[in-house]
Prior knowledge:
Structural class: alpha+beta
Radius of gyration: 14 Å
Order of helices and strands: EEEHHEHE
Number of helices: 3
Strand order of the largest sheet: 4-3-5
Helix content: 40-55%
CATH class: Alpha Beta
Largest sheet: 3 strands, antiparallel
Number of domains: 1
Amino acid sequence: MTTPLETFPEGSTLxxxxxxxxxxxxxWDDPVTLMSVVTRILMKVFGYQKQKAYRLMMIIHEEGRAVxxxxxxxxxxAYCVRxxxxxxxxxxxxxx
Length: 96
């Protein structure tokens, strides 16, 4: 069942998406944050084991970004806010 469309804030590249689609939380590489710090933040925010957090951090470092979580929009946005509060660059995008 498809839910109504939601309009995103002005200036967004997304104008409308179905709310029942999965959304990705993407963490972006930055030249400032230490890799060990990124690993610890992923462990803290998502409850990941050190090995999984380290693998994700390496993808972020080597590819410039990584999808670190996929799920419903409200949780994705909440995770993004927590990542921002921890000093990481993150965004929410519709899952491919």
